[in-house]
Description:
Layout: E1 2-5, E2 13-14, H1 15-22, H2 28-36, E3 40-42, E4 45-46, E5 53-54, E6 59-62, H3 66-73, E7 81-84, E8 88-93, H4 109-121, E9 128-129, E10 138-144, H5 147-158, E11 163-171, E12 177-181, E13 190-198, E14 202-209, H6 216-223, E15 247-255, E16 262-266, H7 271-281, H8 285-291
Parallel strand pairs: 10-15
Antiparallel strand pairs: 1-6, 2-5, 3-4, 3-6, 7-8, 8-10, 9-10, 11-14, 11-15, 12-13, 13-14, 15-16
Amino acid sequence: MISFHITESDHCRSVGSFLRNLLPTGSLAYLKKLVRSGNVALNGLPVLSQQVLLLSGDRLTVKESSKTASLVRAGRTGPDILHEDQWIIVINKPPGLAMHKTAEEGEDLVQLGTRFLAGRDGFPGKLRPVNRLDRGTSGVVVLAKSPTAAGMFGRLVMGSGLSKVYLAIVQGRIPREGKINLSLEGKEAETGFRSLFQSETMALAAVYPTSGRMHQIRKHFQSIGHPVCGDRRYGGQKLAERDGIFLHSFRTSFIHPSTGEKMSLLAPLPEDFLTMIRGLAGEYYSPLLRDLSTIPAETH
């Protein structure tokens, strides 16, 4: 057996995501077979679904074979993949990485994902974003692998949509929970939030946007006097700890339009975000981190 101790960098990662990143050149069918055949165990018990979440401190074991060993030796390359199937690839975008090519030099997320798939599978096309994040925001981004998939997921977004939960560190003391209603772009916009931890100067909040206007969360928290930390554009203080703002797209849920499967994809937090929470919460850091996996998918 090959054994792995789960650390904070993989906290709230699904088993399927862990295997996809551990064995980046393995086929999707092979990864499914590993789980279906009972060759993957979590804390000594067989894993029954790739959507099972890993928590910091867990131990994951994979039955060793010559094929698995060779795939592990190939090493982890490419983007942080949260989910992949024949239709989409879902990536945990790091802060500071643009979605599309900009005037500045450097690779963007679409290029990064497309190049990875081309090198691994000879992928001939170009990835198409189903959702977008600001350059400074990290977390879940869904990318379609073909025009057909883009159309399928585009209709999903226009219909039932993607249900999203963000984590944000904002300035000041905020209410325990609330809703911000402020029109943006001349259209109605609503953002729900719930305080997860409050210090004297900052708060960690779970954020639930029920509309998708540009910069909605950032503008809404600025409007109530609690800008997102690091967001200088909307009143936040510049912080040296992060190449971006302290806003992370943590969970994205949807019904897969092809398979009908209910998907709930969580993106582990970047290291600097975890460091910020550790400084914010102090002795309460460990239980706060543990409870992130239980954050509800929507406000009540």
